[in-house]
Amino acid sequence: GLSQYSSDPRTEWDLSAYSTRDQVLEAVRNLRYKGGNTFTGLALTHVLEQNLKPDAGARLEAEKLVVLLTDGKSQDDANLAAQTLKNLGIEIFAIGVKNADEAELKQVASEPLELTVYNVLDFPLLSSLVGRLTQVLCTRIKEKSSKENADIPVNTGPQLSPTDLKISAVTSKSMHLTWSPPPRPPKKYRIVYYPSKGGNPKEVVLDGAVSSLQLSNLTSHTEYLVSVFPIYDTVVGDGLRGVTSTLPLSSPRSLRVSELSHNSIRLSWKAAQGATQYLVLCSAAPDGAED
């Protein structure tokens, strides 16, 4: 599977899209480069939420590996998103090109770093990594597979997935989430939320017995993407997703002018709900304009 990213990650193809080497190589040849910003944290969250789930071709019994290729320093918190993946047993390999930040690559990648971090000066030099990286990836898969328990459930299905996400009590800076838990209660829930036009993903981890959450300190008049993931001992169930916008900040209304004199005026207005202060700006009208 492959996703490209800038400020908005984009899935090019899912894990289940192709079944032969030649098909994958043809897809790579037809790939169009996506320029733009470098929101690596948002991209890693996209991979977890969109690409590493059963209906995108992720098999529960298969090892989960993410290979990150970047040519710049992330403009959001890549470390937090990477840590979430690593906590779920997903192994990250970080490959830097040109202007990549090596310290950031080492933060994002899984241990041991001598096997998972690579950095080259330009794109043509990536070909020099192919042989070693292929060998390392295959060896890691074999090592991890041999250690897995045989009793991992075969698929997630509706037994492990919450339903019916409801977003209510939306204000300019908060919203309330509720959902119906799956038949098999999870160990924990992971809630991820971020502005749809790009921004740092934030997350909250809840006990599996809880099925509601109040999100606070949000930005007003902003569309948010919200995802709720059930976390079990050996798997992450399918997530619930929702989109909603916070309300704009309340405005003062009914501005009135009174008590005019040669050097003063009195202003009055109806209060804006929730406002703690007002900023009043006043300037002389240009010559010839109506006062």
TrEMBL record:
Membrane-spanning residues: none
**Domain VWFA positions:** 1-133
* Signal peptide limits: none
Question: Which CDD domains does the UniProt entry name for this protein?
Answer: FN3 (cd00063)
Looking at the record's lineage, which domain of life comes first? Eukaryota
Task: Tell me the compartments it is located in.
Answer: Secreted, Extracellular space, Extracellular matrix
User: Is the keyword Secreted assigned to this protein?
Assistant: yes
Q: Which UniProt keywords apply?
A: Extracellular matrix, Secreted
Q: Which residues form the Fibronectin type-III domain?
A: 161-250
| Pfam families the record matches | fn3, VWA
Q: Nucleus: is it a keyword of this entry?
A: no
User: Main site of residence?
Assistant: secreted
SMART domains given for it? FN3, VWA
PANTHER family the record matches: COLLAGEN ALPHA, COLLAGEN ALPHA-1(XX) CHAIN
Q: What is this protein called?
A: COKA1 protein
Q: What is the lineage of its organism?
A: Eukaryota, Metazoa, Chordata, Craniata, Vertebrata
Q: Which gene encodes it?
A: Col20a1
